[in-house]
Amino acid sequence: MKRLSELRSGGRGTIMSFEDNDLFLKLMEMGCVPGETVKVEQIAPLGDPISISVAGYNLSLRLNEADNIFIEELV
């Protein structure tokens, strides 16, 4: 498993679990639920934030938020 923050632009993965319970509810409300496929659409020029597509829409996450999401990378 790797963290969502480690994916490069165009990378895809399936959400497996979360590290931070405080951020867990916020991410779940935004559609980041275990089993959902995510794709990194864009990375800001300085690397933060990143834009991902999840559950049919685009979402912008800070790297510290993306660092709390564990994924199984899809090849």
Automatic annotation (TrEMBL):
<dbReference type="InterPro" id="IPR007167">
    <property type="entry name" value="Fe-transptr_FeoA-like"/>
</dbReference>
<dbReference type="InterPro" id="IPR038157">
    <property type="entry name" value="FeoA_core_dom"/>
</dbReference>
<keyword id="KW-0408">Iron</keyword>
<feature type="domain" description="Ferrous iron transporter FeoA-like">
    <location>
        <begin position="2"/>
        <end position="73"/>
    </location>
</feature>
<dbReference type="InterPro" id="IPR008988">
    <property type="entry name" value="Transcriptional_repressor_C"/>
</dbReference>
<dbReference type="InterPro" id="IPR052713">
    <property type="entry name" value="FeoA"/>
</dbReference>
<dbReference type="GO" id="GO:0046914">
    <property type="term" value="F:transition metal ion binding"/>
</dbReference>
<protein>
    <submittedName>
        <fullName>Ferrous iron transport protein A</fullName>
    </submittedName>
</protein>
<dbReference type="Pfam" id="PF04023">
    <property type="entry name" value="FeoA"/>
</dbReference>
